[in-house]
């Protein structure tokens, strides 16, 4: 079943423990690309240390892309495949810095995503070099730069046939 995102609902959450822990982690990463997906690879401790704090308050799972050793792991999405951009190879491996701004919960289709919202002036400029909007475009919706640390499927919205 293809997901259709009619609305992007974002709610700011308060969890000082999670934000304080995030404040102790490195705020830099390297640009990587897999197929047509460009992301900033960051310290996996953003998942290992923040997810347990949030899962004490919310029934959430680790993101799917963090389950297998060869998966992407902790990252910040920079350019989504549907944005149809081919990167210059010289940009792969570039270091960028970011700042954690807060904790958000965003609902897309049948899932809720728990994430740290981040800002990165250099990632914004990087996107603009490719004539893209300042914010990433995910399935037709502009989204903030973020680090997804947990996912929850809404049981009320699941249809079993």
Automatic annotation (TrEMBL):
What residue stretches are annotated with the Swiss Army Knife 2H phosphoesterase domain? Answer: 39-152
Q: Which Pfam families match?
A: 2H-SAK
Q: What is this protein called?
A: Swiss Army Knife 2H phosphoesterase domain-containing protein
- Species of origin reads Legionella moravica
């Amino acid at each position: 079943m293809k997901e259709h995102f009619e609305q992007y609902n974002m709610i700011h959450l308060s969890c000082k423990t999670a934000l304080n822990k995030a404040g102790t982690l490195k705020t830099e990463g390297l640009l990587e690309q897999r197929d047509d997906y460009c992301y900033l690879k960051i310290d996996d401790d953003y998942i290992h240390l923040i997810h347990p704090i949030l899962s004490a308050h919310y029934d959430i799972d680790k993101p799917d892309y963090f389950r297998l050793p060869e998966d992407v792991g902790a990252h910040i999405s920079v350019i989504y495949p549907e944005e149809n951009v081919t990167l210059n190879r010289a940009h792969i491996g570039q270091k960028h810095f970011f700042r954690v701004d807060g904790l958000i919960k965003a609902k897309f289709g049948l899932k809720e995503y728990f994430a740290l919202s981040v800002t990165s002036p250099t990632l914004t400029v990087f996107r603009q070099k490719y004539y893209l909007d300042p914010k990433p475009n995910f399935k037709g919706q502009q989204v903030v730069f973020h680090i997804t640390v947990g996912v929850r499927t809404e049981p009320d919205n699941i249809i079993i046939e």
